[in-house]
Structure formats: C-alpha cells, structure tokens
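User: Before I run my own analysis I want an independent prediction to cross-check against. Here's the chain; please return only the structure tokens and, at the end, one sentence I can use as a sanity check.
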Amino acid sequence: MHRLFKTLFLLPWLSACVPSWAPGSGAQDWTPAAGAGRIHDFNWRLSGDRQVAPLQVFDDGRQTWLQFAPGQAMPALFVESHGIQQPAAYVRREPYAIVQGKWPSLIMRGGSLQARADYVGPASSAMAGAMPPMAPPAHFAVAPATAPAMASSGGVPGRPSTDAAGAAVQGSGAVLPAPSRGDAQRNKAGAFTAARLYRVGPTDENMRRALARWAGLAGWTFQAEHWAVDVDIPLSASADFSDDFKGSVRELVAATELGDRPLQPCFYANQVLRVIPLSQACDRTAARAGASL
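Assistant: Structure tokens:
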C-alpha cells in the first residue's frame, strides 16, 4: 500500500519530465503569434517521394514550417548540417510541423520512402557555415540518401540547358548541364558531401557504365540487358548532378535529346532501371496492347 501511494503521488510529476525538445512535444514551444511580424522565406527546394514530402516549406529565420496535406501520414523528420543528420525537434500544429531553428536541409522518411527540403536562398552559404557541426548520436547511423522503391513513368520531364559549357557527350551532339550556382554554394558550405553527389566523367568511358555505377550506389539494378540501345554513348568531360538518383538519371539521359539517338530512362517498382529509345514506351504491356488494336 505504501508503494502504491508513492507511485500515485509521483505520476503527475513524472509527466512533467518529458524534455521540451522531444520531437512532436511541447505545446508551450509555439503560439499562433510566434511568427507574427517576421519575414517568411519560401526559398526551399523539395525533392524525393511525394508520399512523404510536404506541400511547401518556409521559415522565418528561427523556425521552419512544413505544411502537409490533410490526412497525410506524418513522416519521421531529420535535420541535416555539415552532412550529419539527427532527429528534428518539432511541434505539430495542423497543417504544419514546426521545426525549431533553420537548417540547411530537412529530411522526411517513411519506410523506404524519402524526401528532402534544401534551403536555396541567397543566405544558404552563410547559414550553413554558421551552423555548428553536430555530433551524431551513438545509436543513429548516418546513411547516404537512396532512391525510393516506387514506380514512376520513364518520361523525361525537362531538357537541360544546351549552353552549359564544359561537358559534351561524344557522338550524340548533346550537352550535359553544368552545376548550378546554388549547387556550388552548397558544396562550399558543406551541406552536401562529395560522396553524395552523382557525377560522370571520362573515367566512366560511356553513359551505360556511368548509370551502372550510379545504380550500384543507389541500390538499384542496371545491367547490360537494361541498356536497350544498340550503341554506347561516350562521355568526353565531367559533370556534377544532385544527390537524387532519379533526378540525376533523367538529367543525364535527357542530354541525348539533341542527338541522333534520343533516349529515356524507365524506373520500375522492383528498383530496376532501363534505358530505351525515346520513341518506345516504358510499359511493355501497354505497348503490346496498343499493337494488337
């Protein structure tokens, strides 16, 4: 009876021992007027899987708001600085998740799906340089971003800049896009590490070998039979892309659109990558059905 009395007496005090920085806790950490009168910065770039990505991201220099769709499951949130990730301290106020502080990058994870938000505003370099390096917790393993396990269409969404200097694909007449100024700033600030960027160069010899190497880094399958083209496309110079596997593959393959053999990538749910002529369809079933009509 004495032990039961002590337990009942201590329960109200134990509930107050939850740290205020615990993810998703602390209603006192935020009030509706917390960001009143401040300038909100929407210079954030979203990439990755839409299922775990927010609709938009913005900050006021002290807190970062992630707006999620109604009914969307809340993914695990991580902050990243100097290439190190750790769980984010945030509070949930529908439809927002409000992360304490402003970080170079935010990571959203849900199972095998992953999305990220990178700050690309004019102060990104200074902000990343001002953030102190974080010591990763002993139980938290920092892993490079991998491609999500989901199916997508193989169409090429956009054509890279044709006036980028320095990197040409021999025999195709196409030009690889040069790194953007924002990418260069983030590289200097340390927000992205060299190992997490997808790159091509003369050492890869041709596009097929480069894609095979990229697929190995991202955990995808790309073998000789997945290159459904009768010739190899040599690489004569170097080019840097983002740390997103699918986006980098699309940009690289899109460089063939101006050549004699325009190609397109196909991504499948079993994490298999294929490269086929632009005139063909990624969905073989649909192609056969159309031919039978």
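Sanity check: The chain has six helices and 15 strands.
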